[in-house]
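Need tokens for this chain, all 226 residues.
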Amino acid sequence: MNKQRRADLLLVMTTFFWGASYYLTDICLDDLPPMTLNAFRFIVAFVVLGLIFWKHVRKFLFACGMISLMLFTLTACGSEDPAEEISRALHIDVSAGEEISSSDTHGGFHGDGISCVALQFPDSQVADAIAANAAWTPLPLDETAQALAYGVTREDGGEVFSAGPYLTDDSGDPLLPGIANGFYRLIDRHSDAGDGQNLLERASLNVTLAVYDADSDTLYFCEMDT
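Here are the structure tokens for all 226 residues:
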């Protein structure tokens, strides 16, 4: 095989693997956090390239191994505990909560996706803190939060308006269960937040919706980025 054909073949292979990585990454993110997935990608790349270019790298094997171990440690340990992230976002200590469900589709270059974590608490201590916090509103949800969580349909002047739901799983079903009693907090994280525009009328969304179910002492923390 001459050099030109070899170069063309390598370009085709590069394009194929680059395109296939999007599909494979989407599948892997169903079971692995993004940082853990990146850690495994680095390790596999190091092993494969080390085998291919063994003659060139064997003299630098120890240094390469130490660098790879450091990268693996940094990326594998980079995932933050969900309770810590939620505590920081809501300014409420939720470290006593037990994670009972979690889903996250964030990925890609822009980090778009939807995540939802449910934490269940042994008592009403968090509920008391939420009730005393003016940033939280007693249920029911307002129209914007309702559209995000469950969808809304209403008739206005003979015209039917419908929006959502936005916080859904792969099947299009709402991630949040029906909640009758509790509190909620809607956080607009968009760069245009505060411009007076209806959140749902924007071309992109960066929102956090937290809902506390007072009947089961369960906190649902959902984020959406588009």
